[in-house]
């Protein structure tokens, strides 16, 4: 087998696989065929990206959730392309194996396929992203087709699409009843348009299972039950930094508590004169 063939072949294991090259959308497709499940985590800076990349996380999402967890807004709507570009570039620089996906923020792609292409091109050219994500079903099919035709991999997003929260009247489960058939139709249309995967957010578990079984591209669940091909969480949620996380969040660590204890210990030692000692001083 030639070295060129070896480089282009899908890795044998997606999560925790060996470093050496970036994960590609072809690897994700191969994992779907094998029935291998995999994790995706958000990242917004180089240091945490390095930690997650070293842990073997195959896909890192620079989400528009940065609006809330980085910039302090109460929704994803205010964040802009210019806000997300430096975060995406940092995640790319901080990782060496993960596929880095950049969210297209609200207002950067809805107007037209041309607008979507211009926005996505900036993430690819200026930040080094490997793919982009956008929200919506049939209404964004022209944008998906334009991006894929231009060589830009597209991750789709259905169900609770946070950029449409004002239309939904809040953060509510989507896809119940007849709307489940519409979501299924959207998912199939997005696959046909060339999307390489689709995020399913806050949809009934049974619907997510049916969508996953009907598509040849991977589904990525967030509040969509256990039967999706992959699962994603905002890293601040899974690490316990979020005060009131959603029902679908499992807290894997009390980072907020550990940070509180550490900074209080530092402050106490500074005020009592216990820090710094000779060990932490120069001669």
UniProtKB/TrEMBL annotation:
Gene3D superfamilies with a match to the protein in the record: Phosphoenolpyruvate-binding domains
Tell me one GO molecular function of this protein.
Answer: methyltransferase activity
Q: Mind listing the GO biological process terms from this record? A: methylation; pantothenate biosynthetic process
Q: What is its main location?
A: cytoplasm
> Which residues make up the binding site for Mg(2+)?
64, 103, 135
Q: Which domain of life is it from?
A: Bacteria
A Pfam match:
Pantoate_transf
Q: GO cellular-component terms in the record? A: cytoplasm
Q: Where in the cell is it found?
A: Cytoplasm
On whether tRNA-binding is a keyword of this UniProt record, the answer is no
What are the protein's UniProt keywords? Answer: Cytoplasm, Magnesium, Metal-binding, Methyltransferase, Pantothenate biosynthesis, Transferase
Describe which pathway this protein belongs to, using the record's wording: Cofactor biosynthesis; (R)-pantothenate biosynthesis; (R)-pantoate from 3-methyl-2-oxobutanoate: step 1/2
The EC number of this protein is: 2.1.2.11
Q: Which sites bind 3-methyl-2-oxobutanoate?
A: 64-65, 103, 133
**Catalytic residue list:** 201 (proton acceptor)
Q: Which reaction does it catalyse?
A: (6R)-5,10-methylene-5,6,7,8-tetrahydrofolate + 3-methyl-2-oxobutanoate + H2O = 2-dehydropantoate + (6S)-5,6,7,8-tetrahydrofolate
Protein's UniProt keywords contain Methyltransferase: yes
Q: Which HAMAP family match?
A: PanB (MF_00156)
Q: Can you name this protein? A: 3-methyl-2-oxobutanoate hydroxymethyltransferase
Protein's organism: Thermocatellispora tengchongensis
**Taxonomic lineage:** Bacteria, Bacillati, Actinomycetota, Actinomycetes, Streptosporangiales
- The coding gene here is panB
